Amino acid sequence: MSEINRESLETILPQLKCHFTWNLFREGSMPSHLEDRVCNQVENLNSEEKATMYDLLAYIKHLDGESKAALECLGQAEVLRKSEHNDQAEIQLLVTWGNYAWIYYHMGCLSEAQAYVDKVRQVCQKFANPYSMECPELDCEEGWTRLKCGRNERAKMCFEKSLEEKPKDSECSSGMAIAMFRLGEKPEKQFSVDALKQAIELNPQNQYVKVLLALKLLRMGEEAEGERMIKDALEKAPNQTDVLQKAAQFYKKKGNLDRAIELLEKALRSTVNNSSLYSLVLCRYREILKQLQKTGDAHSSERRQRMGELRRLTMEYMQKTLQRRRSPLNSYSDLLDFPEVKRCYQMVISKESPDVEEEDLYERYCNLQEYHRKSEDLAALKCFVKFPRHERSIKKEEAKQQT
């Protein structure tokens, strides 16, 4: 393909509504367990929602350098959308086609990229912009994608825009309720339970929204009704990771730590690389250990045995948490009272970290060391943080060339 066509593609691609133009992640900020979470969702959702997850999974695979796997995910999304046989299928395919165009462009397959750009143009040509269009279906699609990536404020804006035209749409209503719930957990935000209730009324099959409402009811003192909803959600979605995690949060708040651990471990069977779940199990074991330390006969052999087992489990889950994190230091603020944490620090410091994470890793280390008055190597580490990243990269490159 000629250079003129390449330039044309470079002008058109940023106009497409898809994952490549939504700015979903800041540099290096993609959660390490996101792929596992998305894969779990694929197993527990209907066709339309699965297609949304396959589109996101394709983008994740692309970011990990797995172009072939990314294209396979887009193929799955395309099949699912076409199988719906509804009036909106072609519109929702715009996101999938846009992703195809971007991935083929990055692969250097410009003719294939152009073919998908042409598909988008055929649908959008009746609008002012031949490569993009405004419609509630695309706003809803973007909202769910942003929600899954933790961009809750932007997700809420997408759902608000979609609901202006389709106020009774069950998918948008559920997305809006989830976004409001997450934002409502910040003290400066106001949250209304009405959004959750409306979402359940429009879509009684959304078990995740149901457990969010149960958590809200628990906060409002309606524990019995909240637990009834939790049990109903667990019965209808026994293996859905996000439902299990929020149900575990419910029982943790109730004080039933054993039940919380049971649910988290069940969730881990579906998403074995989710470091945050391992961290949650770790924290629950620590809470049980602290409770035990405050009660009972200090010299009881049974109590000592139980405490020893809890310490063993705590350390086991700490190691599992660290092994599964792209940035292990993110975990350490919760683990500082463990005697092995210093050794773990040194383990991470001794490894060569990816450039995009270096500053964050070492700055967290410095901050934690400073906070806990552990000054060894602090000055050297702070010097390292101030050392410009591109200069470090040049030094590494020079070292590679010399070997």
TrEMBL record:
<keyword id="KW-0677">Repeat</keyword>
<keyword id="KW-0802">TPR repeat</keyword>
<dbReference type="GO" id="GO:0051607">
    <property type="term" value="P:defense response to virus"/>
</dbReference>
<feature type="repeat" description="TPR">
    <location>
        <begin position="241"/>
        <end position="274"/>
    </location>
</feature>
<protein>
    <submittedName>
        <fullName>Interferon-induced protein with tetratricopeptide repeats 3-like</fullName>
    </submittedName>
</protein>
<comment type="similarity">
    <text>Belongs to the IFIT family.</text>
</comment>
<dbReference type="GO" id="GO:0005829">
    <property type="term" value="C:cytosol"/>
</dbReference>
<dbReference type="InterPro" id="IPR011990">
    <property type="entry name" value="TPR-like_helical_dom_sf"/>
</dbReference>
<dbReference type="Pfam" id="PF14559">
    <property type="entry name" value="TPR_19"/>
</dbReference>
<dbReference type="Pfam" id="PF13181">
    <property type="entry name" value="TPR_8"/>
</dbReference>
<dbReference type="InterPro" id="IPR019734">
    <property type="entry name" value="TPR_rpt"/>
</dbReference>
